[in-house]
Structures
1.
Amino acid sequence: MSRTEGEGVVDAVVEETVEAAEAAVKAVDDAVPNEDGTSGAELGEAGRRAARMGTLFALLAVAMVPWAIYLAVTLPTKETARHYDLAWVGFDAGLMAVLAWTAWCALRRSRNLTIAASMNATMLIIDAWFDVVTAPHSEFVAAVVMALLVELPLMACP
């Protein structure tokens, strides 16, 4: 097969892949109604882009199932992290920044408040999860109490 023929085969495969992806996006778009009842045609390019991203994230969610099973089977139950302190300090510094940005957005009544609050909620639930699952036996009850009385209620704040 010459280089030109090989390029033609690659182009054909790429074209078929694009067509299959577009068909999947259309199928999802047809199956899932828009939240406000508008049609995909009314939403234009932004709606098509959202449908493509929805399909991509749906595929990624499905791909996470075997990955999570693989990790559950292969990861050790106990591991010593070399930079455990740095991981927590870095995460908490990021959480502090998101909390401050959320406060700033709320005080200014910024249209970015929903984005900041979503980031804040995500980080708080992750913080609660890792506080509980990484707590030494002697600190487990305190971690659960903090999660239930501080982190998760803050996450649910509007």
2.
Amino acid sequence: MNFRICVRLSAVLWTCMLLFSAAPASAGDLPEVVEFNRDIRPILSDNCFFCHGPDKNKRQADLRLDTEAGLLGTAGGAGPVIPGQPDDSPLLQRILTSDPETHMPPPATGKVLTDQQIQLLRRWIQQGGRYEGHWAFLPLCGSGGWLRSFASCSGGKN
């Protein structure tokens, strides 16, 4: 008898997990504060870094989107992201254009950003386009073990 109850309960739990995990995220599910490493870097890595990343042999248009200077520009010129101005940022303009000659990522790649990814980029730029270095190279803050440092750095948030 107990075995049957466990089997039924397991089936119900698995069904619930599948239903809730399969629900698509909507634009309303965007984080209030967009973080570069958590939200933006994965989008750029999956869709842009092949042509605009660290590999100088594959880089096109002499544009790097994997560095702060490449995204935000330097004193010598603006980059494709204009912090606080998503509509004026060439990065977002190229993603949103309907012109196949200038659209990014190029149609030939087969890569297409989702509406949620575009909204994340827009919100990140609107919030100032703050760049974060790769997490593996960021200094630890606080004292104690890694977990203690992580908790003090993130305020206990994941």
3.
Amino acid sequence: MTLARTVIAIAIVAVPAGVAAQARYEGAGATQELDCEGGTATIAGASNTMTVTGNCRALVIEGAGNRVRVDLASKGSIRISGAGNQVVWRTPDGSKARVSVAGAGNRVSQSR
């Protein structure tokens, strides 16, 4: 491998420090686990049952009929765009999540 190819290969896989992880799922009808690794988890689709781990700083749901359990970071955020989604969240310190909901029939609650 030439030096130029080596430099290009390293540049492609290098992730700058301070860039938060991102986890994304797109689809319908799945039951799955997702690890956001302290970053943002995005679920786009319908009728999914998801468990999201990794102390997410943010959860974004775009779709309908999703059921999601999520571990948020302290003072994490939840943004829902769609209808009939159910989210149950918890934070390590019991702090409240910042919640933004657009759509009908969405339910967001803190885990007990």
4.
Amino acid sequence: MSKYLSTKSTTSQATGFDVLPGVANSTIRPLFDDGEAQFCADFLISSEPWITLGLTFDMAMQRLTDPTREVYVATVSEQIVGVLILYLNGTFKGYIQLIGVHPDWRCRGIGTKLIHWAEEKIFRDSPNVFLCVSSFNLHAQDLYDRLGYRRVGELTDFVVKGHSEFLMRKTRGPLREFKRRT
């Protein structure tokens, strides 16, 4: 079975699984190579919110291959169905830079699974998880709200004119009181 999901496949042709956290044959693992990065870049740039944000293939590849970031993919039966980019340094240690789910696999729990996985990883080293969401991306805003994220700031015209990016945070407490888990 191919590790890439054809962008021409329908959901039922892909594997037949309803992907929910804990489903058999699903994993989250590091991105392996440029071929996987290219596959992820292709599905990102061909769907929202990335179209409105003006993400190009080259920009997506730059993000997916940035050595200062940790990049992971969600797979079902070894096929890539989602991608996650984390930035774990700097002021906002524990920043989810990007969550992308293949259009054929949206609304099936993959985004939630990626977020929970990222939170588990980040909360070992930081009491805070941060992410940004576009003002026009109402579905993602609802998801983040359901998962306990709260809006802590607004960056107007940050990526594209006419749209804001909302900085969101999920916290387990103040930074000064945090005890790193091993």
